[in-house]
């Protein structure tokens, strides 16, 4: 399923990944925390955007704030630098505190600032009485690391992800969710979208990698990947978004949102009976939002995987134009691509 991809094709995938993440965040945010999203309202919402019926610019949230901080740090330092990442997260928060940050991560930012970044991992370790956070805040920002490290071994990538994640999310379910999301983006990036795609093989490859990462007595990601695999093996791809919310989850915990984002990417490859759309990227965003719950983060993660697979040309300009900061995000994708190519030619 993987193949050699030209530099122009790879650049398109970098741009698609970053733009997909932004679009999912911006367009998913208005539906955040709705337990049930009306298919009619969601379909009309997207159709209106795609036909130019709306000129509204949708603001991005903390998902994009932190993703851009990670990308900018990688471009400048050409490596994962935890202290620089922590400073960027904190500076970005205090410059734009009303982007939807959760209270727990805000506490980490205050602690980092108060301790002058002396130990950038300590405030995250202290969260939840020392158990650390297993929220999806680490997974939602991890796509740039998958892009930057697309030629690295999975072991090296895992180390980078953990360093980025543990600043705020020190629970295994928190950073393992970021690892799974990173591996999914990398796998999508390496796929040739012009060739036949095997969803079972895609999931099996992720499952095999997560089996070496998760402890046997605590393996929520392997369990969810098995559930996704069963959907395809039993030919149940018509399972509803409401059932997926129950089956895989849709809340702010990483283990109940990262697998849902991955499934949304896979589900977007097939048409829906309730929403007619020929574009699989748009279908991915539609399904991710339709699941409800933490819609901006699930759609952002799903969008980054889909964008990495399909590339920028598959993403309608009508959706790109409706997102705040879209030119800056695209420019950053170019820079990230250039940095990732250094020493590879």
UniProtKB/TrEMBL annotation:
SUPFAM superfamilies in the record: ADP-ribosylglycohydrolase (SSF101478)
SUBUNIT field: Monomer.
Co-factor binding comment: Binds 2 magnesium ions per subunit.
GO terms for MF: metal ion binding; poly(ADP-ribose) glycohydrolase activity
Reactions accelerated catalytically: alpha-NAD(+) + H2O = ADP-D-ribose + nicotinamide + H(+)
Keywords, alphabetical: Chromosome, Cytoplasm, DNA damage, DNA repair, Hydrolase, Magnesium, Metal-binding, Mitochondrion, Nucleus
Cofactor(s), by name: Mg(2+)
Family the entry assigns: Belongs to the ADP-ribosylglycohydrolase family.
UniProt key word Magnesium: yes
Native source species: Araneus ventricosus (Orbweaver spider)
GO biological process, one term: DNA repair
Binding site for Mg(2+): 61-63, 294, 296-297
Superkingdom of origin organism: Eukaryota
Pfam family membership, one: ADP_ribosyl_GH
GO cellular component: chromosome; mitochondrial matrix; nucleus
InterPro entries cross-referenced by the UniProt entry: ADP-ribosylglycohydrolase, Ribosyl_crysJ1, Ribosyl_crysJ1_sf
EC number: 3.2.1.143
Entry protein name: ADP-ribosylhydrolase ARH3
Subcellular location: Chromosome; Cytoplasm; Mitochondrion matrix; Nucleus
